[in-house]
Design goal:
By secondary structure, the chain is mainly α. It is built from five helices and three strands, in the order ααβαβαβα. α3 links the parallel β1 and β2. The two termini are about 15 Å apart. This is VWA domain-containing protein.
């Protein structure tokens, strides 16, 4: 996990124990300040000799240049990159609590935010990285499914 620095690091490995270590690390993650993907990827490249699957969970709200540089460096270093990206508006206040004006404003903001994310996702895919937008209902399911699919395809150690 990372923000302005790498906070936790799980060495590459395989098996049920490895999967449990990853899930345990994710259980204690809380958002803290700005994140710097490029710095985290550089640290990862230094720490690992083998290349494999790199699951990045990010809201894609950081600086576009930093995000793209980090993904470019990870791909160039031989990692298969998959980004699982929570779509912020899906995690906000329930629509049932909002009045008509707030709903309309929220929908307009969500639509604009979605357009920005779509353009960034297309840029990210140029570096052979997949981007999956998730909401609160399918977040964990998406992470586990991507992990299982990568193992099935034999994409490196995770």
């Amino acid at each position: 996990t990372f923000n302005s620095k790498v906070n936790t690091f799980v060495k590459p490995g395989h098996g049920t124990t490895q999967f449990n270590r990853i899930i345990e690390d994710l259980a204690y993650v809380a958002p803290r300040g700005p994140s710097y993907l490029t710095r985290a990827v550089q640290n990862l490249i230094i720490r690992t000799r083998s290349r494999g699957l790199l699951l990045i969970i990010t809201d894609l709200e950081g600086k576009k240049k930093d995000i793209l540089d980090g993904i470019r460096k990870a791909s160039a270093a031989g990692f298969d990159v998959i980004i699982i990206s929570p779509f912020g508006p899906f995690f906000e206040i329930q629509n049932t609590r909002l009045g008509p004006t707030e709903k309309a404003l929220g929908e307009a903001i969500a639509e604009e935010y979605y357009d920005i994310r779509s353009r960034l996702s297309k840029d990210i895919q140029r570096y052979r990285a997949g981007v999956i937008s998730v909401g609160p209902d399918d977040f964990l399911v998406s992470v586990i499914n991507e992990y299982i699919e990568a193992k099935r395809r034999g994409i490196g150690l995770v």
